[in-house]
Amino acid sequence: MKEIKIGILGFGTVGAGVVEGIQKNGSLMAERTGITPVVAKIADLDITTDRGITVDDGVLTTDAMAVIADPEIDLIVELVGGTSIARTFTLEALKQGKPVITANKALLADYGAEIYKTARDNNTGIYYEAAVGGGIPILRSQRAGLIGNQIESIYGILNGTCNYILTRMEREGLPFDEILADAQALGYAETPPDLDIDGIDTAHKAVVLASMAYGAPVPMSACPTSGIRGLSASEIENADELGYQIKLLAIIKDNNGEVELSVEPALVPKEHMIASVADSFNAVFVKGDIVDDTMYYGRGAGRLPTGSAVIGDIMEAASDTLNRVGPPVSVTMMLQKTELKYCSADNIEKRCYIRLCLEDKPGAMAKVMNIFGEHNISIASVVQKERHESGRAPVVMLTQKARESEFVGAMNAIQALDVSCAEPIRMRLEDFG
Ligand SMILES: NC(=O)C1=CN([C@@H]2O[C@H](COP(=O)(O)OP(=O)(O)OC[C@H]3O[C@@H](n4cnc5c(N)ncnc54)[C@H](O)[C@@H]3O)[C@@H](O)[C@H]2O)C=CC1
Ligand SMILES: N[C@@H](CC=O)C(=O)O
Ligand code: NA
Questions:
Q1: Domain ACT spans what residues (predicted)?
Q2: Which pLDDT tens digit goes with each residue over 177-216?
Q3: ipTM of this model?
Q4: Structural domains of the chain, with CATH
Q5: Does 310 sit in the ligand 1 pocket, CB within 6 Å?
Q6: How far separated are the first and last CA of the chain, in Å rounded?
Q7: How far is the CA of 316 from the centre of ligand 3 (A)?
Q8: Coil, strand or helix: which one is 24?
C-alpha cells in the first residue's frame, strides 16, 4: 500500500468537510486505489475554533508557506478562498512541482491562464472539480466521458445560494434577506455573498466550463452577467401564472464557431427538468455532437458535498503523482488554443419576459406595440392586469426570439413614452428550443 501526504490550506467549511470525509472513508479509498490518503498538515490562520473534528497533535499550523515547502508533503489542497493569498499559495506549490487541488473558481476565472501554464511548465497538475457544481463530478464528465464530443451547449444552475433563495421565495414567499441569512448559516454563501447574488460566482463557474469546453481560458469580460439582487415577488408570481419558474442560468453555446456566454435570471418552463432543481442543488445540461443531451445533478455547495469533489481530485492527483503522469487533462484541455472568438452580446437572439407599467389611457398599448414592431420584436402573449386605483396598469408580455440590441432599443423607447410610468423589467425566457 502506498501513502500520499496531503497539506490542506484553509480549515473552514470545505477544509473541514475534506478532513471529515477522509476520516470517514479513507480506508475505503485505500482499498479501492491502493493509495492511503494521509492528512499530514492543515494550515489556517485560526487554529483554535472547534470544527467538530479531532486531528493529531502537530497537524495544525498557522504557516501555510511552511506546509507548501515541507518536503514530506506530496500535494497541496488550497481552500483559503479569494484571489490574493490563494494565488500566491497555488503558484508557489506548482513551482515546487507539487500538484494543487482547489475549489476556488474565482481564482481560476481571474488567473486561470497563469495557473494552467505554471502547472504545465512545472510538469504537474491543477485539479479543480469542486470549483464547478460543488459535489457534482461535472468537470470529470466533461474531460473524461465527453472527451470525444464537440460541446454544442451547456445550461447550468451553478449557484446553490441563489437557487436556495429562489426556491424559498417561490415556495414560502419569504423576504430575500431572510433567506440569504439562512444560506449563509448553512455555509453555502461566499464571503461576501454579493458574489453569489450578483451572479459573479455563477460567471466564475461558467468561464471554467466554457474554457474546458472550447480549449482556452475564457476571461470574465466575455460573460455578460446579471444576478438576482432586487428580484421582486411580482416577477416570481407572474412567471408562475404563465407556467414558468425563475432560475439563475449560465448559458454557454457554440454559436457558429463563436462562444456565446451569459449569466442571467431566466424564466424556464415548469415542465422542463431544470425547473425541478430546487434548494442548494445544482444541475448542468451538456449537449455534445455525438452524445446528444446529458444532465448532471447534485449538491452545488456545502461542507461535505464540496469535500467529496475535493477528495476525488486528491485521489486522482495522488495516482498521477505516484505514476509520474505529467500535466493532466485538467491542464492540457485548458491550453489547446491561444484565443477564442466570442459572440457579441448585442447579436444574441433570445426570447424575453417583459413587465411594463402603463397609464390606463386609450392608445397606450398601441404605442407600445408600434415600438416592438419597429424593433422587429414579435409578441407571443400579453396579459394586462386590472388597472390599479392609481390609474396605472401592469402589462406582462412574452416575446418571440429577437436580437438583444433590438430589445435594448425597444426598452429605451418604451421608457421614454408619456404613458410609461416605471422602468420596464425584462428577463430572458429560455425554452431550450
Ligand atoms: N462553501 C462552499 O459550499 C463552497 C466553497 N467553495 C470554495 O472553497 C473555498 C473555501 O471556501 P469555504 O471553506 O466556504 O471558506 P471559509 O471562509 O469557510 O474557509 C476559509 C478558511 O481559510 C482560512 N484562511 C484565510 N486566509 C488564510 C491564510 N493566509 N492561511 C491559512 N488559512 C487561511 C480562514 O481562516 C478560513 O478558515 C473558496 O474558494 C470557495 O469559493 C467551492 C464550492 C463550495
Ligand atoms: N457560494 C457557492 C458555493 C459553491 O460554489 C454557491 O452558493 O454555489
Ligand atoms: Na464539481
A1: 353-427
A2: 999 999 999 989 998 999 999 999 999 999 999 999 999 9
A3: 0.99
A4: 2-135+303-335 (3.40.50.720), 144-299 (3.30.360.10), 345-429 (3.30.70.260)
A5: no
A6: 52
A7: 14
A8: helix
